[in-house]
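In these records, each integer encodes one residue's backbone shape. Here is one protein:

___
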Amino acid sequence: MSTLLYITAHPGNPEASYSLAAGEQFVQAYRESHPQDEVIHVDLYRRNIPYIDADVLEAWGKLQTGGTFNQLTVEQQQKVTQLNELLEEFVTADKYVFVTPMWNFSYPPVMKAYIDSFCVRAKTFKYTENGPVGLLKNKKAFHIQASGGVYSAGPVADRENGSRHLRTVLNFVGITDVDHLYIEGISSAGERAPQIKAEAIGQARTAAQNF
């Protein structure tokens, strides 16, 4: 049995969101084809995702220099605990599905905060004399991203900083099996918008069957 984290970074709903609509169908098809697997929904807009702020940095510093958890402030304890829980959940999973909209050429800030929670030295990567090495081996990821324009190829492809950054991060922690589904050109699609949505849902369901 494998564990799949279904990670959504969208404040909307599947009726209005193209990425969430495709993501929801991906999960449904995955459950149908992998009934023995566990699927955990990590809704980043409903989970408390602490930012790496002054409290967190001070707490980590205390712990790294021999301080105890009880010596941290209540707020520091809460943030460190939440970050540890997110990290443990991520590390113990086998597969990951990320669903994001493209906002200003990237993804929502909460997604970056989540990435910061699992990019942790000695947990998901380590430094060696030959450079950093990712520790999360034999795992796979799938990213569903919707955007108003077309950024996966063409004259503005260099402005795409969502899926490109996510792939870089995942590769860094050892996850090299990463695929993407781009749902693009929505803003200028006009009457074709429903067709784009339907095609994306079909592609998501097909990808899920072999994921």
User: Anything to note?
Assistant: The chain is about 40% helix and 20% strand. Strands lie at 3-8, 38-43, 95-101, 125-128, 131-134, 140-146, 177-183. The helical segments are 18-33, 54-64, 74-92, 109-118, 163-172, 193-209. The two ends are 13 Å apart (CA to CA).
